[in-house]
Amino acid sequence: MQKGRNIIVAPNGARRGKEAHEELPLTLDEMSQCLTLCADAGAAMAHMHVRDKEGKHTLDVALNNEWLTEIRKQHDHDLVIQLTTEAVGQFKPHEQMELVRGTQPEAVSLALRELRPNASFERDASRFFYELLERKIYTQYILYDAADLSLYFQMLNDEKLPNRGHHLLLVLGKYKKGMLSAPTDLLNFDIKRISCEGISWATCAFGEDEHQCLAAAMSLGGDVRVGFENNLVNLMGQHAINNAELVQQLALLSQKMGLNINSAEDLRKNISRSFES
Question: Taking the model in full, what pTM does it have?
Fold first, then answer.
């Protein structure tokens, strides 16, 4: 039996606001309402950026705790909630680490190049990665290109990064002109090696070809992340009604490909297994 695919929804991201789409959630209440619809549409995990009163992305520990506590209270039964440590060009590695230590999320995403920007940061980054393993925080290492993937394998081989309790997010289109991805961008990553080594991975894709990129990823064994952080356009090339429409279209596409979609319960079982020796 084929393993089920996990659909992750990224409803808001760090930069877009209401000018991009009126249904992009910027407040706690809006996020909760959005996630209710996304869970019903087939998402198993939510990648959540906390916004402050001005609508700006923030790593403030108290505010992130407030959002995380309330969202988990409402959605813990149907979604795994993943916090993000995204730097957006202003937060330093120690601030990103402080966020995770101060909130203790079930899952977190972090860009490997942000926590380990050069070799001088490797010792502290490595200690932090092993700390996440010890605390059983499911960690998503965000990789933007082949160099990031090479660094990941180097750190894994050198035991600077634990070989359990994590997965990868391969980002397509982030640094291309116009931030427009294409399915062939997956060829920049060594998917064969990732798969042969049994590493769980997912893909997100910027731009209007998001769906085609994610279909390619699913066909290669990957999970997928969809939502307004990366793309606002549905399969018909029109502005999506909301995040849930993008999730639903991806879930239907998966079914047509003969692939099962995991529930949050299924995902948590896989997460638990990922921490086993």
Answer: 0.96
